[in-house]
User: What shape does this take?
Amino acid sequence: MNDIMRDRTEESLGMRVHEVNKHRAVERAVERLRYGLGPDWRCLTIDDIASLYWLLGELWAITSREEWEGLHFSKLDLCAARAMVVHGERLRRHGVVRSSTSGMVTELLADSMERAQAAEIARLEDRFASPN
Assistant: This one.
């Protein structure tokens, strides 16, 4: 009987640790997103932000930690953030396929990172190409 109780306690503890880690990771991701959006963050509604939290929690749960750490939430623009909200709503309310939604969101993040890098390269090229 004692072993059963200990197993349940350890399982409950493990589940709680998982939830705490997920919450922390999602909080960091939302903070990075908010920082990246700057003033545009105010264009998102409370419901939009709740959908982002939920979607990011789902994404964290099915993504490897290495892949999660490689996602650049601060590079998203408002359009991409709104697209993520739509994906989150479709997943949560309409039960679309979780893996395809996570793939689309990961693709949005990768595209945003590529656009940000291209813009930075163009900015640097302009800076060094113009005579001082």
Observations:
- The helical segments are 2-37, 46-62, 65-69, 78-94, 98-129.
- The chain has one domain: 2-129.
